[in-house]
Amino acid sequence: MKRIVPVLVVVACIFALWYAGSFLMNRAWVMDQAARAGTEPGFSEVLRDTMNQDRAKLPAPHQVAAELYDGILDKKVTSKRSLVYHGFITFQATMAGFALGIVAGVALAVAIVLSRVADRTLMPWAIISQTIPVVALAPMIVVLTNAMGAGSLMVPKAIIAGYLSFFPVLVSMVAGLRSPDRMQLDLLRTYGASPRQVFWKLRMPASLPYFFASLKIAVAASLVGAIVGELPTGAIAGLGARMLIGSQFGNPMIMWSALFAAAILAAGLIWIVGGIEKLANRMMGGQRA
Amino acid sequence: MTEPVISASDLSLTFQTGDGPVHALKDVSLDIAKGDFVSFIGPSGCGKTTFLRCMADLEHPTAGTITVNGVTPEAARKARAYGYVFQAAGLYPWRTIGGNIRLPLEIMGYDKADQSARVKRVLELVDLAGFEKKYPWQLSGGMQQRASIARALAFDADILLMDEPFGALDEIVRDHLNEQLLALWAKTEKTIAFVTHSIPEAVYLSTKIVVMSPRPGRITDVIDSPLPRERPLEIRDTPEFLEIAHRVREGLKAGHSYD
Amino acid sequence: MTGTMARIAWPLGFGILVLILWEAAVRGFDIPPAILPAPTEIWDAIQRSTHILWIDWVQTVVKGALTGLILGAIAGVLAALAIDRVDFLRRGLLPVANFVAALPIVGVAPIMVMWFGFDWQSKAAVVVVMVFFPMLVNTLAGLEATDRMQRDLMRTYSASHAQTLGKLRLPAAMPFIFNGLKIATTLALIGAIVAEYFGSPTKGMGFRISTEVGRLGIDMVWAEIAVSAITGTALYGLVALIERRVTFWHPSQRRG
Fold first, then answer.
1. Which among C11, C95, C225 has the least Cβ separation from residue A136?
2. Domain C40-246 sits in which CATH superfamily?
3. The complex's ipTM?
């Protein structure tokens, strides 16, 4: 209770501010319309009109909620206007990119930990890769994958998502694989263990809590990658494409509902991955990274 | 008989925990006179640190009264009546040794020239002259702890509260610091309250040894040391010293239930 | 010095090797420049169009990304300091801010473009929103990073809230703040370029990339990518350099 109440109050304040913002930002249009019609609207009329505009500068929360309800539950999931349909397209790319990111992150981390040369050459480039804005690279990834015969946008989107999500996995796995201390390593030396045995019996198990701890960040990054990947690639389906369409047609409701659908998808993914992390921690005896 | 510097009567402190109330201190009464060196010794959970924290206004007793310099601990804290030395040196890594000692002086608003003079003086007092520009992490543990004592001395409080300051150091370094602390005490005539779990340390340093025991935290014995104020390290081999140590050990045993 | 040399030589050598292989592959397999131009062709494009690249760079990086980064970072730190003063707010806002920081905030780009127009103001606004939350969350975490003993020490000096903040908690929070700033610099460039895909004047890196892709001016696209990559790395390097100066005392920075 003690932890919930402040959060609820803060959320309530955000909604109140949102409504106030809707009123203030949408009022100009209402007054403009009234001036053209030559009427003097009273406060309650202005209030009503600011809360129900189709092209509101800032749609009120209940409008966004209605649009979300309509897009998620009222449309057939196969409809081109269903948010479930678009959300699923983005979800697929997110998952493919997530898988790609995990494989690449773990593989690179193993190489970096086992080889001094890889540590020196790859680690700086891994950091540099994240400082390069991936959105700039995105159209080229589409061109290149097309030239190689990928055929659909799924492959480049997954690559862009993987590009953003491999990094947190890599960083955590390097830390995890290096987490055994001198004493633990010396113990295995006294057993005459081979490097392979040291890796599988000590480094790998020690890195697991770090691995699971990195997944939440990785999946969130992957979703950002999937959405960003839809923007410059001429996609027509997916939540990012929805935002683009809303922007082109000047329809704020489409933008807001796509934004919130993306937030809901992110929250769901983080929640599920967080659950997997907790489960894994429990199975490993409650140790944490 | 002059006014005691620190005076506690029927002091109690109860923590509410998930497993019910914990009596960290129960009906503790003690007077500390000016210039005393008082050690608090006992097993963990006996409330010795809690008692010290009450004097420093870092903990608030649930019953009883305690005064420091004749006023409440809070008023004494606000008047900067004491210096406190913690178990770890707790020096700020982003400040030099000199900067760390200057920290309380900056907070208390001493002027720049005075700050520098005081830093120089206390560094000499703890035998760290020449280390002013070093960073804490470039010094050994013993040197760091000496710097933290210098930090507590810098603003000339009459009372020094020390919570197991040498607990984390090895025996040889500890002997050396004990000797230095006695010399410092003789030079500055401060009143010192000192928490420890080492019997030889308590006997070697103190004019008064307070033996405490846990569940509930209380005082079981108060021993006034007959040893002279001037104490070379060799005093620890004299029969007088061993006799007091024996009495402390008996006191600890009596208060301990070994459950 | 040999250690520093090796630290730079290895990755540099790797980068040069990749460029040579790239050049060789494009020439060897006769890859058309509309798919992948060779590094030398990209270098030609850079030299040919320095003026355009400069205009785009000023528009996207200086006006969009850096303005937004500075405003957003300052706002994030100030908000954290304000929230920190009120315990109720901290307990309420921290979970919310943590949650929002994990969401795909890039999605506000079309909304900001609608609100602030096509020019750099909307790009800076997107960057402000994207940068704000990581800065807020990291600063708040940093302000919590002092241990009890250090706070008790300030209490024994009966230090004021401002004194404890200035002398203990802010310095201790610096490693966290710089961590947030590093995340923020990479987000800033992404945000500024993304926002250009939702509408921009006829300049800017994102604008140039999307129009040149349409005109098959692929070498120009790669030129913009090269500029953005160098900018991103340089910005990150600059922040890392300042971090080294400010948090020299932190165990992770104490080498040599």
1. C225
2. MetI-like (1.10.3720.10)
3. 0.85
